[in-house]
Amino acid sequence: MAYISELEASLRPPAMDMPPYPPKVITLASGEEMVVRQVERDEVPILLEVLYPLLWVERDFYDIVAARLFGELLAYKRYRVKDEYVLAGLIDGVLAGMVNGRLMDAKTGMSYHTLTVRRGLRVGSHLFAAKMEYHIEHCKQEEVLIVAESPIGFRRWMIEYPLEKRFEVQHELGGVPSWVLLKETYYNAKPRLVAGRRPAPEDLLRGAETIMLPDEETVVRQVVGEKEGRE
Amino acid sequence: MKPVYIAGAGMTKFGRSEWSLMELASNASLAALRHAGLGKIPVDSVVVANMGAARVNRQTALGSALVDQLALYPAMAEAVENGPASGASAFKVGCQAIASGMADVVLVTGVERMRVVNGLEGTDFVASLSQPEVEYIYGVTLPSLAGMFARLFMDRFGVERRHLAMIAIKNHENATKNPYAHIQLAVTMEGILTAPEAVVNNPPIATPLHMFDCCPVSDGAASIVLVSEEVVGKLGGPKVRVAGIGQATDTHAVHEREDPTDLKAVRIASEKAFSMAGLTPQDVDVAELHDAFTILEIAESEAAGFFGRGEAHKAIERGETKLDGKLPINPSGGLKAKGHPVGATGVAQLVELAWQLRGDADERQVKNAKIAYACNFGGFGNNVVATVLRREEK
Q1: d(Cα B74, Cα B340) in Å, to the nearest integer?
Q2: CA Rg, chain A, in Å?
Q3: Which of A121, A135, B136, B357 gives a 20 to 30 Å CA spacing to B145?
Q4: Interhelix angle for A183-193 vs A123-133, to 10°?
């Protein structure tokens, strides 16, 4: 480990041991294979590049999600948040979406954000499920606190799983009353909502080693929405 | 009756729109008017098709509103509401005006802006077309009716989920070639049916129908300019004639039908349309069917007379309904992938067919298309309008 000054060390939150997220492969409706894998701190800058143009996209609350995620990713890179992790979905190495969260303690997790660049393929649902899988199956937690910042998120998490209210707890995202995914709820929902195969084939993992940015057309068409009024 | 021609066709991109209801209607109308190239020939009448604006957009009297938006005064104007068949019904009203000699130029525009409400409210608004006392009050929705219909139809004729998936795959593929389509996304058999992940990618909606068996909820507008023989003679471009229109009704409640798998209204409406056109189903080169659910493409193609009972799914297996098949069905992507802004759908089907007959359909052009058929399926088959178009050689 590189030398860290005593002052810098004191600024970092204490860290727990976190198990790695074993990568998996999901076949999407399009037939494309999406690798879901953990994102290392040195890969954060490329994710920030994807988020930057989305800071001004109001559609589906991309602006607030991108802005908060931007800060959370920086905090992860610069060791300013406790026990955070980031997962990414990559199709042929191109970023399709990302999710993050953190461990509050050994028992309870806190989901932060889910952001999809490649829309219409349930990429967000798959990545959110991977995040829950990480908390419950790999970190062996009992529950995950969750909020939604868009109606789409509310349908995907609160209704589809379904989540329970834990409104007496303010979520770290703006103090919004929390919902909770219990371990039992997760396992009930798993056959319907959690997909993926392990071990991921070597060739797909190699293709996902370097995160590539989606091209501008993909971002515009999938996230912002195509310009209307063609004749 | 005087002959009626389609002089122009245009539409907006279907999907989730930021445009208001009237912006959608106006933009589609302007596209159709430009396509027609009327010059100084005035529009005599405007007919607007819509199902839910009074409820979801708080707007009524859409015919007058569109005349005002486009400054088409003093044109006659009205709106037509006939559930999901509103579009073809409005087209029929426009044709009647020209056929009777009351008008020489009619603008028919279908529009719907239904993404302004959430999914539950949107589903409820569409369900309001069901029988109020024996269907709606018990929570019947269109997906639930389609699910029950599919189960019965599949049991009786040996249709399997893979056949439904083949329709979804075909229509999604066609939509990738249509810049106006709501969903421009190709899907695969593996991704929506056979891979272990398919259960998550393609969740059940109303079994046996899954997400990729159902059309999306869309905003959008489509528009057609109808003209008399006298006017079409003054315009350039290929002549597309309205060869036949048929309309038929059936019981409101689906369970009251002697055989719920028999789409009697589709059969009768189609027979009327073909009879008026002096043509048969075997003459058709390209068709747009009302595939709000994939099972309906199969059932309607049989009821319209393209295939025998229980035969359509075998034709689909043979690839006969693909873009390069014997009878391409839904080259636009259909409701399944092009989208389904309810009041606009019937007009949009005819826009696609007009483009096909004029040779303007770009990548999805059906070769040598001369005769086209559309089925606009209202209610759950209780009010159907069938239309046959024909390209007239100069």
Answers
A1: 32
A2: 17
A3: A121
A4: 140
**What tens-digit pLDDT sequence spans chain A (231 residues)?**
557 789 999 999 999 999 999 999 999 999 999 999 999 999 999 999 999 889 988 989 999 999 999 999 999 999 999 999 999 999 999 999 999 999 999 999 999 999 999 988 999 999 999 999 999 999 999 999 999 999 999 999 999 999 999 999 999 999 999 999 999 999 999 999 999 999 999 999 999 999 999 876 677 667 876 544 333
CB atoms within 10 A of CB A56: 11
Q: Give chain A positions within 8 Å (CB) of B180.
A: 230
The verdict on residue A62 lying in a domain is: yes
Domain ranges, residue A57: 20-223
Domain B4-118+217-232: CATH class, spelled out: alpha beta
Identify the three-state secondary structure at position A217.
helix
Q: Nearest residue on chain B to A192, judged by CA atoms? A: B200
- Residue B71: how many CB atoms within 10 A of its CB? 7
CATH number of the domain to which A176 belongs: 3.40.630.30
- pTM for the structure as a whole: 0.94
Q: Give the residue from A152, A95, A151, A160 showing the smallest Cα distance to A132.
A: A160
Q: Domain for residue A183, yes or no?
A: yes
Q: Which residues of A touch B351 (CB under 8 A)?
A: none
Q: Do the domain assignments include residue A2?
A: no
Query: What is the total count of domains within chain A?
Result: 1
Cα atoms in the Cβ-side hemisphere of radius 13 Å centred on A111? 33
HEC-encoded secondary structure of B328-351: CECCCCHHHHHCCCHHHHHHHHHH
Number of residues that make up chain A: 231
Q: Do A151 and B17 touch (CB under 8 A)?
A: no
Does residue A130 sit within a domain? Answer: yes
Strands in A164-170's sheet, in edge-to-edge order, are A24-27, A33-38, A84-91, A94-103, A108-116, A143-146, A177-182, A164-170
CB pairs under 8 A between A and B: 77
Task: Please give the biggest Cα pair distance in chain A.
Answer: 65
Put simply, the answer to whether B200 touches A193 (Cβ < 8 Å) is yes
Q: Is A103 on the interface with B (CB under 8 A)?
A: no
d(CA A125, CA A153): 9
Q: What ipTM does the predicted assembly reach?
A: 0.91
Owner of token pair 């400054």: B71
Tokens of B377: 């399926």
Q: Under a CB-based contact definition with an 8 Å cutoff, are residues B94 and B80 in contact?
A: no
Where do the domains of chain B lie? 4-118+217-232
Contact partners, residue B71, CB within 8 Å, separation at least 6: none
Around Cβ A17, how many Cβ atoms within 10 Å? 8
Phi-psi region of A174 (alpha: psi -120 to 50; beta: other; left: phi over 0): left
